[in-house]
Amino acid sequence: MSDRDDNFGFHHREGRATGEHVRLTPEQEKARKRRNVYIAWGLVAFMVAVFLITVVRLSQNIAGAAG
Amino acid sequence: MLDTLTQTGVTHAEGGAVSTASPRDFFDLMKPRVMTLVVFTAFSGLVAAPVDMDPFLAFMSILCVAMGAGAAGALNMAYDADIDATMKRTRKRPVPRGAVSVSNAYGFGVVAAVLSVLLMALSSNYLAAGLLAFSIFFYSVIYTMILKRSTPQNIVIGGAAGAFPPMIGWVAATGEVSLDAVVLFMIIFLWTPPHSWALALYKSGDYAAAGVPMMPVAKGPKSTRLQILIYSIVMVVFAGAPVLTGLGGLAYAATSLGGGALFMLLAWRVFASRAGEAGSAEEGELYAVRAGDKAARDLFAFSIGYLAALFAALIAEHGLGAYFAVPGVTG
Q: Is B318:B169 a contact under the CB 8 Å cutoff?
């Protein structure tokens, strides 16, 4: 990382805002949005998976205890 | 080289660094073609296990194996970006192509690995999750970072990573490593050298250019052809082991015998040929080959079908009720 790393409008070595901003091209914006949508769906899928696994395993344990 | 590659896939706008990688590029990082065989063998191990698993948990376990294999593939592509860029067969992969940066590939691989192991622990058991974690570590660190560039035995030892999936499937269902799980592991472990060296024979120019000491590059084509023959004999004989343990029935025995005979024929053809002598194939495609290397190409292609057929027979026998014990075998 360079000392004048203004990727996020921030001068890292001096610890201050540079006042400069990254201007994305339309292609970059589109690609970032597409990746963000996929990450969001991935997180939702992960939550649903954990929930369903928990439900199935709980029901198995309850059935096992009753049987 | 690494600095250059770190910048690939990244465009600078007003001093910023933003990737234009698409989700498809990240999917390609997971080596989907390799993943197919991994999923198939893991599914086979799970189905062949003598314990019935809840269908949803079984599905999740297989999904975790797929994700874990994909994670290992991404870590492999991140580390091997420099040699992938020099090989015709691999230069179109997302990292050398410039679609995904090395750091993003590492990040993606680590996140996918952690999630796959975590979900595996939740959906099956800790032993299966531990084996999955170890197989990812083995492939991405032991094979990719240590063995691949240092010894011609790289794929012999590293082949263990690809042999884990049926064992993981088995353990996910049963919770323990039994003799049958080890037998399934050993079949893939012994299958890997003739399979990989057949490819290396007709792509040896690629490996030599990249500085990877694959057997044909380090020991020469003649020695490789002999070793392919020896490993093929051992593997084909060992592939009959499931019949002796009772895991494989008549369908498996027939597949093992017929497929094994054809495998031996093709391995003998490679041994008797001059495969590997002509250098690498002209084109970068996986099956592109010079005339003298056809025997090696045929063995490489058939080896994939052979392994798939063995595990398909187990699925048919244990999942579709087509199991008929071989007479005289008590198991």
A: no
Instruction: Kindly list the domain boundaries of chain A, sorted by start residue.
Output: 25-66
pLDDT tens digit string along A36-45? Answer: 999 999 999 9
Q: Is A21 on the interface with B (CB under 8 A)?
A: yes
Residue B18 touches chain A, beta carbons under 8 Å: yes
Instruction: Collect all residues with Cβ–Cβ distance below 8 Å to A9 and sequence separation of at least 6.
Output: A17, A18, A19, A20, A21, A22
Range of the structural domain that residue B34 is part of: 22-177
Position B104 confidence tier, pLDDT thresholds 50, 70, 90: very high
B126 in a structural domain: yes
Residue B11 has pLDDT above 50, yes or no: no
Query: Same structural domain for residues B182 and B172?
Result: no
- Among chain B residues, CA nearest to A25: B13
- Using the beta-carbon criterion (under 8 Å), do A52 and B119 form an inter-chain contact? no
Chain B hits for A21, Cβ within 8 Å: 14
CA distance B323 to B331: 13
Residue B116 has pLDDT above 80, yes or no: yes
Question: CA distances (Å), B203 to each of B62, B281, B288, B292, in order?
Answer: 32, 6, 9, 12
> Residue A15, class by beta-carbon neighbours within 10 Å (0-12 exposed, 13-18 middle, 19+ buried)?
exposed
For A5-19, write each residue's pLDDT tens digit. 445 566 667 676 766
For chain B, say whether A60 makes contact (Cβ under 8 Å): yes
- Chain B residue numbers with beta carbons less than 8 Å from the beta carbon of A28 are 11, 13, 18-20
Of the residues B177, B208, B240, which one is the last residue of a structural domain? B177
In this prediction, residue B121 carries a pLDDT of: 98
**What is the C-alpha separation between B128 and B130, in angstroms, rounded?**
5
B291 touches chain A (CB under 8 A): no
Report ipTM for this prediction: 0.80
Same-domain pairing of B183 and B328: yes
Residue B329: closest CA among B227, B233, B244, B237: B244
